[in-house]
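User: Predict the complex with GLP.
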Amino acid sequence: MDHHPRIASARAAKITILPTAEEASQFVAERLVTLVQANPTCRLGLATGQTPRRVYAKLVAAAQDEKVSFAKVETINLDEYCGLEQSHPDSFAAYMHRELFSGASFDTSKINLIDGAAKDETAEAARYAALVRSRPVDLQLLGIGTNGHIGFNEPGSPVTSRVRIVELSPETLVVNQQTLLQLDRVPTRAITMGIADIIDAREIVVLATGAAKAEAIRKSLSGQLGEACPASLLQIHGNVHWVLDKGAAQLQ
Ligand code: GLP
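Assistant: Here is the predicted structure with GLP placed in the model:
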């Protein structure tokens, strides 16, 4: 059931600012480990990008040190490029296996990923939409784009949006170009969870590091809510924790 059909009121955000990206990542990793220790069968919503890589490395280390077991954890990923096989190194599926799932011994039967190479993209988006609707996550980990996107919900994404096929913004194409491993160009389309899907999470943790994110963070936390900065729509959720390093927080 949609419990946020319209933007009613902004709520005070919980914000933690730490000196470095390393400390911010450690803080987020500890939150995730604590949650999984308390609830070993929890469901995690996971993001890709450069930002969570440190967090995932810490989760792998914690699993290998047997501080926590991810064997019973279910995961749901936010988004995926269209047109890429899951085995392609630039797919978000391959990223997740490389950065987290393999090293931290996740059960592959409990991992939910989008098939970006599905012949029928519309059917794949519908499959994932139904899956996401039936499985709200306990904790959604998010990064943020320099234009304020979350997942691939680019500026203009409605607060009521659900899983769908989207066109990536010119800014995202330029920024993500630097992250490619094999492709020459960033795919122009993606399947992403919507804003409403993200807001269905019980708890949301946004990790942002580096000065390049400062303006997006300023807009997200300014108190103004609007589709022009999708992350600002998170203010309607009552349990969002923003974890920032000094660079990302410099315009606060
Ligand atoms: C992407 C992803 C987002 C991510 C954002 C920021 O392309 N779809 O989920 O949060 O960009 O990425 P980064 O952490 O690399 O700055």
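Residues 114 and 127 are 9 Å apart (CA to CA).
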